[in-house]
Amino acid sequence: KKVLFSGIKPSGELTLGNYLGAIKNWVKLQEEYDSYFCVVDLHAITVKQEPKDLRARTLQILATYIASGIDPDKCTLFIQSHVPAHSEAQWLLNCFTYMGELSRMTQYKDKSQKLGESISAGLFNYPVLMAADILLYNTDLVPVGRDQKQHLELARDIAIRFNNLYSPTFKVPEAYIPEAGAKIMDLQNPEKKMSKSEDNPNGYILINDSPDVIRKKISRAVTDTVGVINYTDEQPGIKNLINIISAITGKKPENIVADYEGQGYAKLKQDVAEIIIEELKPIQDEVNKLLSDKAYLESIYRKGAEKANYVANKTLRKMQRKIGFIQL
Ligand code: AQP
């Protein structure tokens, strides 16, 4: 079986973007691949985190994976910091990555603009840690939203560079960017992707939002003055709502447009809200159930850590040997 790796960072509550761009697709892919799904807590601390919240969210994300249909018996579910090889491999790979490459990453540029002087070195190095995550498991495929494509390309470049410098060590991973849900946009600013660390809560739907909150946020979503439902870049707000329906129902955007011929934005918004509520309700109920059984969650991440440590340490030892470290 080919290997698949992906993860989400516990830097905020999960959004509909994380769900449609990542988790929902993993559920399908797990049948076909030897899958590793990680909660990437080391990535989360690249920006300031409250320890109590970080702990709670880490478990919540793990529970959301399972509640969404990721099967712990088929996949390896683990927490990144339980596998120290990630941090160590990152150091090694740092020495094969150029400052110039990292400073060209758009996510870094966006976030550093927002944070100014107080940006951490960790945020700058973030893509190297992501490369380590992926390369340690001999990953073939990395399902990500479109926003992560550039980071994945860097991981490929680093792998190829290391392989050429020493000898074939890493499998060179491919990105898998599913069309539906590839990029869900901010409801208040549909030129920007929906993000869990966005300040304005009206911009995102949380997986955990109540039906009333979902209805309110969708009804306030920014649209346009055209007044006709089309699927076009000229109407990014409407396009985003259509994309959300498409990602949830599997319907093609052009068929959704046809369904709404002659109808107004209010009807479209009402329907989007109900479709989201119906999709999220069973997940919310299951997450709550899982979170009340901490012993079960612990058994899952312990089992996951054991398998992940075994595989990751093997790759790490290989890297150390090739670099020229004396091994114990
Ligand atoms: N808006 C989105 N549309 C589609 N996919 C998305 N993803 C994130 N936002 C969208 C996908 O979710 C996965 C996990 O992402 P992450 O948490 O590791 O980092 P991120 O991409 O930086 O996510 P956020 O929500 O924007 O977090 P913050 O605000 O903390 O930076 C990835 O597969 C990503 O593509």
TrEMBL record:
One of its GO terms (biological process) is tryptophanyl-tRNA aminoacylation. It is an enzyme of class 6 (ligase). The keyword RNA-binding does not apply. L-tryptophan binds at residue 133. It holds the Pfam family tRNA-synt_1b. Gene3D superfamilies: HUPs (3.40.50.620), Tyrosyl-Transfer RNA Synthetase (1.10.240.10). It catalyses: tRNA(Trp) + L-tryptophan + ATP = L-tryptophyl-tRNA(Trp) + AMP + diphosphate + H(+). SUPFAM superfamilies: Nucleotidylyl transferase (SSF52374). ATP binds at residues 9-11, 17-18, 145-147, 184, 193-197. Its EC number is 6.1.1.2. One of its GO terms (cellular component) is cytosol. It comes from the Bacteria. Transmembrane segments: none annotated. GO terms for molecular function: ATP binding; tryptophan-tRNA ligase activity. A motif ('HIGH' region) lies at residues 10-18. It is found in: Cytoplasm. Keywords: Aminoacyl-tRNA synthetase, ATP-binding, Cytoplasm, Ligase, Nucleotide-binding, Protein biosynthesis. A motif ('KMSKS' region) lies at residues 193-197. CDD domains: TrpRS_core (cd00806). Belongs to the class-I aminoacyl-tRNA synthetase family. Homodimer. Catalyzes the attachment of tryptophan to tRNA(Trp). This is Tryptophan--tRNA ligase. The lineage of its organism: Bacteria, Bacillati, Bacillota, Clostridia, Eubacteriales. The gene is trpS.
